[in-house]
Predict the structure.
Amino acid sequence: MKRGTVCFIALLLILTSAAAVFAQGQQAVETRPAGPVTIDFWTTETQSDRMATIQVLIDTFSALNPDITVNLVPVDENSLVTQAQTAYAAKSLPAIFEGPAETAVSFGTQGIVDVATTTKLIEKIGKDRFYAGPLKVLETTSKGSYYALPYHGWIQGIWYRSDWFEKAGLNPPTTWDDILKAAKYFYKPELNQYGILVGTLPEAYAEQCFTPIAMSNGAALFDADKNLVFNSPEMKEAVEFYAELAKYNPPGPQTWRARDYYLQGKMAMFFYSTYIMDDLALQEAAMGSLTGDNFKDLAGADFDPDLVGKTRVASIVTNTSSAGYGTVVALGLFDQGDPAKTAAAQKFLEYLYTPNAYITFLHMAPGGMNPMLKEIATNARFQNDPVGIFKRYGTEKMAEIIDGLENIETFSIVGGNRIEAASEITAKQIIPQMLYKITQENVSVSNAMAWAEAKMKKLTD
Amino acid sequence: MRELKIRKPTLPHDPPPIALAGMNARALREQRFGWALVSPSVFIILALILYPVVYNIYLSFFEFKLTGDNIFVGLRNYVGVITDSEFHLAIRSTLVYVFFSTVGTTLLGLGVALVMNKKFPLRGFVRSLILLPYVAPVISVVFSWQFIFDPVNGIFMDVFHNKLGLFAERFSLIGSPDTAIWVAILFGIWKNFPFTYLMILSRLQAIDETLYEAAEVDGASGWQKFKSITLPEVYFVVSALILLRVIWNFNKFEEVYLLTSNVKVLSVYTYLKAFTGTMDLGQGSTLAVLQFVILIGFILFYVKKVLKW
């Protein structure tokens, strides 16, 4: 009996070590430059329907390239950096990742992406075919090299109730004065109705709302010589204006989720990306929200099926200058140290830029995912999206939105130069924290700005 | 002449002398075999518990780099954390959270256990119903609470502002930094009191009824019976429950973070420091070490003074 148990344990040990040897052998096979190659593709499109669409694209690619196997791995956008860190430590970084441009840049500055192959690939696809703005966002400090390839992007704007504005005789919310005037006018808390939604919770959304306001006042984080110029009169004005707007927010710290209040007819304006388009246009998307239809006893209006017709967007904010805001989602190549894997990844990326594959990908979220190649924007198949967003909004309006991608601006590009420290400041969410202190903890603007400046200096030193 | 043999008297429990050496060898073999059997578990415990703890302490002396070239910084992380005003705030929030949620959980648990120890119709059903908050998944109850306290659509504001007019204006109880911690405490008490209740109830059921009968004969009042019989009987259970609750709530992350997101107790602060933004894993590890040291200090004090072990 005892001998039997000892034999069993010994057998287990032998088997596990044999498995380890076998696994090493497999690794050795995988690192061989010739023959079948398996690469991982990390995507931030984690919803199951989007995963299914990407899988169809991968299956098509595999049919054309039987030697290459692509494993699709969903990674939440908020944990992308953490996952990459652990994968790096375990030497198992995927060949390809899809994620926000600022994250791609931060990977680039850490030296873990394959800049040479990326740049070669952009040149192969054709630099002129890309919108210039998004390419700029992904450029390294040395011109003409890139950290990642821009793949899709969204534009932010102020979405507003045009019918309310017309009735009240107010101008569309494009200038500081008009935005504030309308926010004040529609703020009727006694009727459970609010003027505007700007981010006040310390999350990325607050910075997304704040950036075009600061930029439209000529405020920046850095000058062209990379000196921190955050604590400027222009920035102070912008922060004060933002804090003033936040007074007409729904109560408490708010983030993008409060867009539901707009769908319920309880808000006049809100900052949001073009991802809102299908929620506005599709009744069932909005019906899933907390409308008066679902909760009869709550104060507020029912869902309005004509809301899309009564909604317009102002994508540019103007004060001393004009500014827009948007985000580029990029495809990047992690350094693999294995030419076979890099070649396979390159081939797969080239395939993703072919019109059919590209349009299929973008149609996962019409309006939200906009192309980075100019010719795709005017492609008839792209404009004939499955949910009919283009038909509803009209191709002209859509072209205007997509063209906005050309003018994407961020704090990390000054005078055409990339400032990596600005990406770090965005990643650390210093500005959202500052805005939270001012709007929720009643810290004075100058004190909060001094706090933010000290944090920024600590990061940049 | 016959040799006189003096034999040591054998007691019934003494092993026969001849078998002794054989037994020793067997016991040794048994012992070795025992070690062989537990060694996989020991290895797993070392790998999964001891290694992360040691590595965490090691990391707290380094500036962690994504590229793996960690820089030794000595005590700089510790100085940085201890002189950071946000760390002081986190300590304060943690103390407030742990103190009130522990007191609340214990008192409510004790009170409900006392009531549930009395006989009344449908007692079994009510007893199991009380366990509901404890067994419900955190994420689903968090969403319900967020919906209840939503300033625009929530039922709380609808009742207290719209219908009863108790508040002059709508406000976000769960979002405002002044009130959020109290909502988190209330949530913690509501979610966790059933565990305390269950433990105390089982102890209450084991108290000898004759003690109460004797006290009644002596003319003791209800309060006197509670003070002199019930309380001493449940003292060690309650003390142990308080110790566990303090340990659990000191490290509590998911309930606080999911519900309020702006109450920075130590565990939330550590997470934000280590895993968000530019990710300062060195300082994050330092915070974890400090949290560990504070907790161990408390446990040693409590075990010596309160549990008197």
